[in-house]
Write a structure and sequence with these properties.
Elements (H helix, E strand, L loop, with lengths): L3 H8 L2 H4 L11 H18 L3 E5 L6 E10 L4 E8 L8 H10 L1
Antiparallel strand pairs: 1-2, 2-3
Helix pairs in contact: 1-3
């Protein structure tokens, strides 16, 4: 919960959330709390979770990546969300490969 403000900043942008939810709308602080609560429970029960993606050169938080459960099948899925200024620079690929490995 100590990283809630970063999560609200990331998912408060509708350009980032448009593919992550059915509505595609930006998250409110209340929605971010609810999602974060679910993510914490998922880690506690299944050891699946989300990690901040940080840039090695300066430690800047550029997004998040990790595992969730895909509702239709109940199978784990890998996902990510990056601030739009970092799109197209290979960070999502690098994060996905790291999580896969």
């Amino acid at each position: 919960m100590d990283q809630l403000s970063d999560l609200v900043r990331l998912h408060g942008d509708p350009a980032i959330t448009r593919y992550l939810t059915v509505e595609g709308s930006a998250w409110s602080e209340a929605q971010a709390v609810a999602e974060l609560t679910e993510w914490i429970a998922l880690f506690d029960t299944r050891r699946l979770g989300k990690l901040w993606v940080t840039r090695k050169s300066d430690g800047a938080m550029i997004g998040r990546a990790g595992f969730s459960i895909y509702p239709p099948t109940g199978e784990p899925e890998l996902g990510y969300a990056l601030f739009t200024v970092y799109h197209g620079q290979g960070y999502a690929t690098e994060a996905a490969m790291g999580l896969r490995d």
